[in-house]
């Protein structure tokens, strides 16, 4: 079988981490099998779909390295196909027009609730007579199209993650709405009891402008089937929240005489307290993770581990390497807990491997966002060594703002510890001597700093440690911080070492006043 999979995001928000993880699993499986990975934009909800979300989703997928082989296909451009298929169901007698008003459907649901029954549509308009239909239409009622679901049906599939899954027709909420009245707005779907017990979160919105008035506005569970069949999708790999949609979709494949694909429902992503990862956890979109300073490689790598593990427990790999190892028998059924420490660790591993030249363009936006007007080319002489110096201590790219803080302004405040050091005996003379030597000797390398320190140490006959500690206090304003010699080279290139030594000397002088 030729493997064809797809990611089918609804552009009603930015690329969500759950969608991205589903895309990762689809991509891994496609690449593992030498198959095709398609992108389909499920934009039938015209009210909530926005082109900027489509753009964000495509950018995010590309950023993560999840290149697609076909598409993007837009559902909004495929309405004639959906309408033809709805008509086919009507013609076959497998679907019918139902004329309940939202109020009637609400009343039905309330009565069921009062009887402590699960809400469902009671199929009461299945066999309307021509007279009844004419009367409803004369009243100006608008019909939805309902697909017949027999209570006695058993629906089974062999899920690649969950194994054998079976549903009873009677648990699907009665005959399901496959198309909403074209001009009825969202009222019908809002009160559509047949879908209220499922996770049918993809109901398409109303779309009166695109309606031909005949079969209305086709909804998610229907269009997804038509598209997956039309696009010859072999495996539908999607989040577990869609499990409840699958039996309905299988019935639709059968009704339309289409081949049922293989399903794999991947575990949900959970937060640290075991609930579904949501907006309340602060980050949900791939862009949020990017802004926090995770690299694309690290986030993609981490997502492969959200619900899947490599046979030899390997944890660091590119998507291409993971694709070689990927299989569904190593995908967990249980929810995948989001582990920030693991993501941080993976991110740091990638950052520590990077050269200064690779890292600099990744750090720059974070420094710029923090308000420093830097230029990758004009400032390269000091930014490159800075990037190289802090690389081994970065966990998230954003850490560069804190770790780079010593290098952005000509002078800095002295911490109390730095002041203590500067106040020690002989420090003023030592710093004067360094300043004098500095005016003679340019500092272009770590070696240059060392020979300058040696010269001063010898000339003054003091301990090297005193010079080193005092220099740290004077140049960095603190006793903690990055490598002193490397920092000094950077500060020298910026022209900041002299003003800082002068400021340190002035500070020492102020102690005795
Ligand atoms: N548009 C749906 C979603 O974003 C696609 C579900 C599916 O893969 O069938 O969840």
From TrEMBL:
Top EC class of this enzyme: ligase
Domain of life: Bacteria
GO CC annotation: cytosol
Gene Ontology MF terms in the entry: ATP binding; glutamate-tRNA ligase activity; tRNA binding; zinc ion binding
Gene3D superfamilies in UniProt: 1.10.10.350, Glutamate-tRNA synthetase, class I, anticodon-binding domain 1, HUPs
Compartmental location: Cytoplasm
Keywords from the named record: Aminoacyl-tRNA synthetase, ATP-binding, Cytoplasm, Ligase, Nucleotide-binding, Protein biosynthesis
Biological process terms in GO annotation: glutamyl-tRNA aminoacylation
Keyword ATP-binding carried by entry: yes
Motif 'KMSKS' region mapped to chain: 276-280
Enzymatic reactions: tRNA(Glu) + L-glutamate + ATP = L-glutamyl-tRNA(Glu) + AMP + diphosphate
Homology family: Belongs to the class-I aminoacyl-tRNA synthetase family. Glutamate--tRNA ligase type 1 subfamily.
Physiological role: Catalyzes the attachment of glutamate to tRNA(Glu) in a two-step reaction: glutamate is first activated by ATP to form Glu-AMP and then transferred to the acceptor end of tRNA(Glu).
Descriptive protein name: Glutamate--tRNA ligase
